C-alpha cells in the first residue's frame, strides 16, 4: 500500500514536521510505503509528484491551513484530518484511512 501525505500547520514549523514524522512512523508500523510532503515556513519540501499520485492508494492531508495544490489529489481516496491527529491519534488515522480505502 502506498499512501501520500501532506502535513501543514498555520506557522509551518513544529507541528508540520512533527506530523510528517508521525505519518512516516505510522507507515512503517503498518507496512505502508509513505511519502510525506511538508508545506511549512520554508515552502514545500519533498513534493508529491504526478507519478506518486498515479501509484498511490490514498492520501492523508493533515493540515490546519489551505493546502497548496489540493486539486492534484482528486483521483485519490482522501482523509483530511487535523495536523495533530497523526501525532496524538495515529491508530485512528490508520483505521479511518483503511476504512475509506476499503469502501471506495
TrEMBL record:
Catalytic activity, reaction form: D-fructose(out) + N(pros)-phospho-L-histidyl-[protein] = D-fructose 1-phosphate(in) + L-histidyl-[protein]
Family matches, as Gene3D superfamilies: 3.40.50.2300
The keyword Kinase belongs to this UniProt entry's keyword annotation: yes
GO MF: kinase activity; protein-N(PI)-phosphohistidine-fructose phosphotransferase system transporter activity; protein-phosphocysteine-sugar phosphotransferase activity
One record GO biological process: phosphoenolpyruvate-dependent sugar phosphotransferase system
Pfam families documented for this protein: PTS_IIB (PF02302)
EC number of the protein: 2.7.1.202
Domain PTS EIIB type-2 per the UniProt entry, residue ranges: 1-99
GO CC term (a single one): plasma membrane
Alphabetical keyword list: Kinase, Phosphoprotein, Phosphotransferase system, Sugar transport, Transferase, Transport
CDD domains registered for this protein in UniProt: PTS_IIB_fructose
Highest taxon above the source species: Bacteria
PANTHER family referenced in this protein's UniProt entry, alphabetically: FRUCTOSE-LIKE PERMEASE, FRUCTOSE-LIKE PTS SYSTEM EIIBC COMPONENT-RELATED
Name the record gives this protein: protein-N(pi)-phosphohistidine--D-fructose phosphotransferase
UniProt source species: Photobacterium lutimaris
Classification of source organism: Bacteria, Pseudomonadati, Pseudomonadota, Gammaproteobacteria, Vibrionales
Amino acid at each position: 500500500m502506498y499512501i501520500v501525505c501532506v502535513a501543514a500547520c498555520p506557522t509551518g514549523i513544529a507541528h508540520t514536521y512533527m506530523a510528517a514524522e508521525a505519518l512516516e512512523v505510522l507507515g512503517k508500523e503498518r507496512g505502508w510505503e509513505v511519502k510525506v510532503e511538508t508545506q511549512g515556513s520554508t515552502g514545500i519540501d519533498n513534493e508529491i509528484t504526478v507519478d506518486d499520485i498515479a501509484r498511490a492508494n490514498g492520501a492523508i492531508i493533515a493540515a490546519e491551513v489551505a493546502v497548496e495544490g489540493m486539486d492534484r489529489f482528486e483521483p485519490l481516496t482522501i482523509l483530511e484530518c487535523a495536523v495533530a491527529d497523526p501525532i496524538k491519534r495515529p491508530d485512528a488515522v490508520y483505521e479511518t484511512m483503511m476504512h475509506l480505502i476499503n469502501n471506495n
